[in-house]
Protein: Large ribosomal subunit protein bL33
Organism: Nocardioides lentus
Amino acid sequence: MAGRGSDVRPIVRLRSTAGTGFTYVTRKNRRHDPDRLVLRKFDPVVRRHVDFREER
C-alpha cells in the first residue's frame, strides 16, 4: 500500500498572485481537495502575505 501514495498526494506548484513569479512546492490530498488549491502564504519578493494558486 505504500506505493499508491503518488496518485492520492500529487506534487503541486503554488504560484504567487502578486505577479512576482515566486512559487512554493507542496503536496495535496486529491480526495479532500479535488479543486485547485489556494493558500495565503508569504511572498518574499513583495514582503507580504498574498494568495498562492495551484498551477498544473
Summary: The CA atoms of residues 23 and 41 lie 10 Å apart. The mean pLDDT is 91. Residues 2-55 form a domain with the Rubrerythrin, domain 2 fold (CATH 2.20.28.120). The longest strand covers residues 48-55.
